[in-house]
């Protein structure tokens, strides 16, 4: 396994401004769904046995990214709270005819630099990604290129360091084996996706995690 927050993945620099470590994101957040938190706590028990390989993600930091956003908009100006609020309205207008839907979370597996948790089915979340992108682009936000196939996933841990010794390589292999067969037979959990959040997300390399500040809740469907 590789260190997740290697140099190519860092948003800011040590001597740069603090705001470089912060970006807008649209996330699905599980903190109000106890069955999802319980599922990830059981995964965390496996991850926690390998602190030399991977860093577990705390309950408050769990998330699924629907769309990341560049820090600077099409006018060359850093995105601010006002533009974030305008984006929230645009995205909401594109979610009013989307009914809440169920997803399956799991199983977990090891990737090159993280513990990945699969999400199924893909279609509903891919549709959310498309609609969210339309809303963000409508207010002049700059986005990474669209994926040909939106990759639905969550993470249960981020790689702590490069497994560049025989000992670490063996530990990484052991982690991959144990996370791949973890919490069976309860290999999945189910949840209803009924809202998203537009947030300020912060990259925290010292903690090897991401945190976020909720700004605008984006409900699916018409309310009231």
Provide an overview of this structure.
By secondary structure, the protein is of the alpha+beta class. The strands form two sheets. The protein has a five-stranded antiparallel beta sheet with strand order 2-6-5-4-7. The relative contact order is 0.26. The mean pLDDT is 96. The protein is built from four helices and nine strands. The chain has a single domain, classed as Cyclic phosphodiesterase (Cyclic Phosphodiesterase, Chain: A), CATH 3.90.1140.
Break the fold down into its secondary structure elements and pairings:
Blueprint: E1 22-28, H1 34-47, E2 54-56, E3 64-68, H2 81-95, E4 101-110, E5 114-120, H3 123-138, E6 153-159, H4 166-180, E7 189-193, E8 195-204, E9 209-219
Antiparallel strand pairs: 1-3, 1-8, 2-6, 4-5, 4-7, 5-6, 8-9
Helix pairs in contact: 2-3
Strand portion: 25-35%
Overall 3D shape: globular
CATH 4th-level superfamily: Cyclic phosphodiesterase
The number of distinct β-strands equals 9
Total count of domains: 1
Rg, rounded, reads 18 Å
Strands side by side in the biggest sheet: 2-6-5-4-7
Poorly predicted segments? none
CATH topology: Cyclic Phosphodiesterase, Chain: A
Helical content (DSSP H or I, runs of 4+): 25-40%
What gap, in angstroms, lies between the N and C termini? Answer: 48 Å
What number is the mean pLDDT? 96
CATH class descriptor: Alpha Beta
Major sheet: 5 strands, antiparallel
- What is the count of DSSP helices, taking H or I runs of 4+ residues? 4
- The assigned CATH architecture is Alpha-Beta Complex
The helix-strand sequence is EHEEHEEHEHEEE
Structural class: alpha+beta
């Amino acid at each position: 396994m590789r260190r997740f927050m290697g140099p190519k993945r860092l948003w800011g620099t040590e001597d740069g401004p603090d705001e470089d470590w912060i970006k807008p994101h649209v996330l699905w957040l599980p903190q109000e769904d106890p069955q999802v938190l319980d599922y990830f706590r059981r995964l965390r028990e496996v991850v926690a046995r390998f602190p030399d390989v991977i860093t577990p993600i705390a309950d408050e930091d769990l998330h699924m990214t629907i769309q990341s956003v560049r820090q600077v908009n099409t006018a060359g100006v850093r995105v601010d709270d006002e533009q974030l609020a305008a984006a929230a309205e645009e995205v909401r207008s594109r979610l009013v005819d989307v009914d809440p839907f169920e997803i399956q979370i799991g199983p977990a597996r090891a990737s090159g630099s993280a513990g990945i948790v699969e999400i199924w089915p893909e279609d509903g979340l891919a549709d959310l990604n498309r609609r969210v992108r339309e809303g963000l682009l409508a207010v002049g936000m700059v986005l990474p290129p669209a994926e040909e196939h939106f990759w639905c996933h969550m993470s249960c841990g981020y790689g702590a360091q490069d497994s560049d010794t025989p000992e670490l390589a063996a530990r990484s292999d052991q982690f991959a084996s144990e996370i791949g067969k973890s919490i069976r037979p309860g290999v999945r959990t189910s949840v209803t996706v009924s809202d998203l959040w537009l947030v300020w997300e912060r990259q925290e390399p010292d903690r090897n995690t991401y945190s976020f500040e909720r700004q605008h809740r984006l409900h699916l469907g018409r309310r009231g």
